[in-house]
Amino acid sequence: MSKENIKSFSGDINAHGVPASHRIAKATGLKWVIMLLPLLFVVVSLIISLLGILKRSFVGTDGFTLDYYVKILTEPLYTTVLLNTLKTAVIVTIACLLLAYPAAYLSVRAKKPIVRRLITGGILIPYWMSMLVRIFAWQIIMQTNGVLNQLLMFFHITDEPIQFLYTTGAVCVSMTHILLPYMFLSLQSNMEGIDENLSTAALVMGARPARGFVDVFLPLSVPGIFADSLMVFVLSLGFYIAPALLDGANNQMMSNLIEQNMNSFNTNLAAAMSFELLVIVFVILGIAFKFVGNIFVPKR
Amino acid sequence: MKRKYVKMMAAFMAVTMVSAMACSCSDPSSSDSTDSESGDTGKLVFVNWGGTNTDARIASAVEPFEELTGIEVTVVTPSDYAKLISMVENNTTEWDIMNCDLYWGAYAGEQGYLEAIDYDVVTTRIDEEAQLEYVMGAETYTSVIAWNTTKYDESTAPQSWEDFFDTEKYPGKRAVWQYPVTVLEAALLADGVPMDELYPLDLDRAFAKLDTIKDSIVWWTKGAEPSQMLATGEADIALAWSGRIATARDEGSPVDMNYNEGIIIAAGWVIPKNAPNKENAMKFLEFISEAEQQHGFSELIPYGSTNPEAVALMSDEMKVELGQSEEQLENEMYLDSSYWAEYLPEVEERFNAWLVS
Amino acid sequence: MLYVYCILLIIIMILPALVIIPQAFTSLNYFQFPVEEYSTKWFDKFFANEQWIVGLERSLIIAVISALVATALGTMAALAMNKLEFKGKSIFMSIMISPMVVPVVVVGVALYTTFAPIGLTNSFVGLVLAHTLLGIPMVFVTMMSGFANVNENLELAAMSMGSTPIGAFFKVTLPTVRSSLVSSILFAFVTSLDEVVVTTFVSGANTKTLTMVMWENMRTTIDPTLAVVALFMIILTMGMYIIKEIVETKSK
Known about the structure:
The complex is a heterotrimer. Chain A is mostly helical. Chain A has helices at residues 2-16, 28-55, 67-74, 76-109, 113-124, 131-142, 147-154, 168-193, 196-204, 209-237, 241-246, 254-263, 267-292; strands at 59-60, 63-64. In chain A, helix 3 (67-74) crosses helix 4, helix 9 (196-204) runs antiparallel to helix 10 and helix 10 packs antiparallel against helix 13 (267-292). The two termini of chain A are 35 Å apart. Chain B has helices at 2-22, 51-69, 81-89, 102-110, 161-164, 183-190, 203-211, 225-231, 242-250, 278-289, 291-300, 308-313, 316-322, 326-330, 337-356, and strands at 43-47, 72-76, 97-101, 135-148, 174-177, 217-220, 237-241, 255-270, 304-305, 333-334. Chain B contains 15 helices and ten strands. In chain B, helix 4 (102-110) crosses helix 15 and helix 6 (183-190) crosses helix 7. Chains in contact: A-B, A-C, B-C.
């Protein structure tokens, strides 16, 4: 396949020699470069080797087999871990969305730029701390004699320290904290793109502000919501470090299991699990496309 | 603009073609070991876990070795099993000698990923038990009982794994390694299996025993975690690695440990298949195993040694510190690496299944 | 109402930073809140080990370069999705997102397979390429949703007034997606800064990043040096952020 790519690529170079016309359709050479350059980069550096690895999910010691897939789809260990992973990813995505949306909305609609800057800056501060460090910070907060328990006991909400660490809750909290800035930033840049005049127009035409938001702003922000949620969802599916350090072992995530299998020569099984994750993401993408249309292409 | 594209294109074409050629090989068994790299290359790539452990190795063995032989040693960290596997599978081995757990090395050797150790060159002084075909013992560390000193003292702390598993006597949380190795042994010891009858492990019995404390376990995955968990009150007692608890205690953490029924794990050296400087790796293996170097290492960091002569060099105080005095050793056991080399994958899978059940 | 909510959210977001920074000054060797006795010994430890400083420097350089390259490539890909008509868009999109979806360990092995035969492992270039790869999907997704909101009529208007398509892109399209672009760079930057698993595969003796140093130390040591590292990272990156803000306000 690489040969073909190169061919079509060099063909484009020649075509690119044509002076750029004023119409997009005629700027053939340049236009394909923007697609082929990134594509080639990802395909060459990752996809080719990845296919080699994925091949091993079908090929055992005695040739073609579906055993690995049967195994990960039927054995309770693998199905439980998969469900845990999906559950955690869904919780984290929804939490990020619900928490970040109002803040992003306010930062975009704020009249004073300083408000916008303060909100953005405030939410981004933790973003600059290394993920490892943030996980430790959450340990300090949630540990048995940590900040949270000290507060709870100070206000006599509880008399005995509660164990927060090493539970799914702890993982979700720290993952939400890590991923929220992603959600916030992309929601924010999305909302900016929404033509503010539209909601102003709605106001002028007599809708109450709340209605202006519900009728106009919210629907317009839906494609953005989908795209951003998808990113956060996919990111949380692959989380590795936070579960490794904060998880109660009974709710492991896929990445950790895959890593263990890579270390004990079960590349085939690890490959099958990776492929499973990939398929899940694309199925979700497909469903999203079916119901909302291609969320990434503007409606005309 | 246009020129730049042409340039990039050329670079990409080159990369595409090279990797297209390279990606056709991935079968480890087909890569027969050609002995083209014999002879003195003057180089060695030494792979270790990093951190203070590696610092101690550099000071006690790497630097003296460079001085002695003139061989230039590159230290790479951290040891990585998956990376070693892919190196060998791609026939691009860059590492010459790597530190790993002994049982992992034994298993990897069986799978064809390692060079057999040339015991003609490495005229070993290591414990017989730690002298396997593909892996040779390095330092030892012990899975021990550790505790928070504000909760317990030496006399009130658990004195055996039986105590450790007794949730009535010790009601708090216990931190345990999220890995079957030494954990299953501890469970069986707690259930009354004598040390010399442990192997092969009675898995059903071990998991049944673990079930009894499952709800009061917090799991750790990184060696430095248990001392933190103990110090911050996340757990009252722990199954932890001796070296880390000793360091934390000496730095003032409220933690301590005893070696009762300690389970000694040996770390080992392995030479990946087709290592570029295999000969030097053997020489280094010989050098690093010598009593002086092993002893020097133990002086810098609280890990024991697989070399009995190195242990003999230690002061009595240090032996006690490392759990290597004769008296202590009576009540300790060595992990059976050959058992784990054979059963690790299936036991690990069962352990994981048990965790999520 | 919304303001109160925002203030609360920000407090929660900053809480970990507020908690971890005092830990850099603790006299204990474990994390305890509040800090009762202060000392600077963890700073001494940080400065005594040049690995930290070298790693920090290296991390920042790699993160900046790979963020820029990833932003360029990812934006191109997003633009292609948005502006070009071609068959197999969903395949194209799947490929562009794949570095984010495939578990990092597997990406690590795959990259190693690609890089090792051409000598890119244990090289600065290899590390930048690897981090670029991981940054691309971030940029791609962010920019796609950014472009989805661009008003095509404006572009057409600009072109009808004599702009070339490229000119129209730079004059009209790019400014409207400016904040998406900034987010993209940030995403790619932080992705690189925090990456540890793939880095293990691609890096070697001379290319160790800060996160790698932390990660491998955790086998033996978790101590407040981590808090010192966090403090420096916050100061550095906040500094960058403030400079950016100042430059922006001045240029207006």
